[in-house]
Design goal:
Elements (H helix, E strand, L loop, with lengths): L9 H23 L4 H24 L4 H31 L2 H23 L6 H22 L2 H17 L1 H11 L4 H39 L5 H11 L8 H13 L3 H30 L4 H15 L3 H22 L26
Length: about 350
């Protein structure tokens, strides 16, 4: 006789079947519209940044929705997109000729290696290791730059999507909220965490990067570093990488200048970068980024690696967001299906305060 308690209920079977269909359809959509994933991520990022101002203009100042949307799109283009696009375009312009770039890079490496070996007799870069390094740098730069050539298409489609988000923001958030099969508190948690993550990545990281790049650029001009504008773009991009940061650019440059015979300038640039650029990095990170959201360095490292492979230069911002969102969803999953009805995580509105209206993004 079959034990009915051990039978799978028809409701559970229907749920699994429906979930499988949803996952298959979502996979097909993502696979065929993969080109527009960066556009969607970018539109959501800018929407979160502009959300407060959009509600202010539409609901308090009574602006026409299309007018406030266009104004905020223009402002985001000037303040957020153009500085990042400028750095990416500069790198493409300077490094677009892969053969000429690799020739200069090989000379640069050989000069540094010869100088270190002559002074220390330490073969820090053997021929085998140098060949691997050159090959890795060549592949990475080619992939990153080729992925960035579609930036114009991504930006155009991103603003097309963003317009409809900004024009009817309440409708957009209501659709997302009603579509999420989660507890209300978890929807609020995701909204609040996403707001902090996006603000930290979309505003904090680029501000730190450009700030370090500008401070380093001043030093490059003062001490006569080669190609200071190119070094500015490389320093700004490298500063987004935790732990090593901008040092991965300015230390080899200092050694190269010393190897070229510019000992005083090389040492002076090294001291300037360690003290001034390092101080700028610490100041911005421990004030701006800590205030926005304390993101673990490993999230940023793996996020940048994944983001650059998926989205090119724009992955510097989107990659860490995706890693952090994945970890957040794992936390929400544990909270959603735990036996305890009380959330383990500190959620907005989870105190004994009177229940308030909760938006998707607080």
């Amino acid at each position: 006789m079959i034990n009915k308690d051990k039978q799978i209920s028809s409701i559970a079977i229907k749920q699994v079947f429906l979930l499988a269909i949803i996952l298959i359809l979502a996979g097909l959509i993502c696979f065929n519209l993969a080109l527009f994933i960066p556009s969607v991520l970018g539109a959501i990022t800018i929407y979160v940044v502009c959300r407060k101002y959009n509600f202010y203009l539409q609901e308090e100042k009574k602006w026409k929705p299309w007018l406030s949307s266009l104004l905020l799109m223009l402002a985001s283009l000037i303040i957020l997109i153009l500085p990042i696009y400028f750095i990416g375009d500069l790198l493409i312009e300077k490094l677009g000729n892969a053969q000429a770039y690799m020739t200069k890079f090989n000379v640069f490496l050989e000069k540094i290696h010869s100088y270190i070996y002559s002074k220390t007799s330490f073969d820090i870069l053997s021929k085998e290791n140098m060949a691997k390094l050159k090959d890795s740098v060549g592949k990475f730069s080619t992939t990153a730059l080729s992925s960035t050539f579609n930036t114009l298409t991504v930006v155009m489609s991103m603003y097309f999507i963003l317009y409809f988000m900004l024009e009817k923001p309440r409708l957009f958030e209501r659709i997302l909220t009603s579509s999420a099969p989660l507890k209300r508190a978890n929807v609020s948690l995701i909204g609040e965490k996403m707001r902090k993550l996006i603000m930290a990545n979309a505003i904090g990281i680029p501000v730190v990067a450009i700030g370090q790049g500008i401070v380093a650029l001043i030093g490059y001009f003062i001490f006569g570093a080669p190609s200071p504008v190119l070094l500015f773009a490389l320093t700004a991009a490298a500063s987004m990488i935790p732990v090593v940061g901008a040092a991965i650019v300015y230390i080899p440059v200092c050694i190269f200048m010393i190897a070229e015979g510019n000992t005083g300038s090389g040492i002076g640039l090294g001291i300037y970068c360690i003290v001034v650029v390092g101080l700028t990095d610490n100041l911005l990170r421990f004030t701006l980024l800590k205030k926005l959201e304390d993101i673990h360095p490993l999230n940023t490292v793996f996020g940048i690696i994944m983001g650059m492979n998926l989205f090119g230069f724009m992955g510097l911002i989107f990659g860490p967001i995706l890693i952090s969102l994945t970890l957040l969803l794992i936390q929400v999953y544990g909270n959603e299906f735990s036996d305890d009805d009380t959330p383990d995580l500190q959620l907005p509105g989870s105190n004994d305060e009177p229940e308030q209206k909760i938006d998707l993004i607080v």
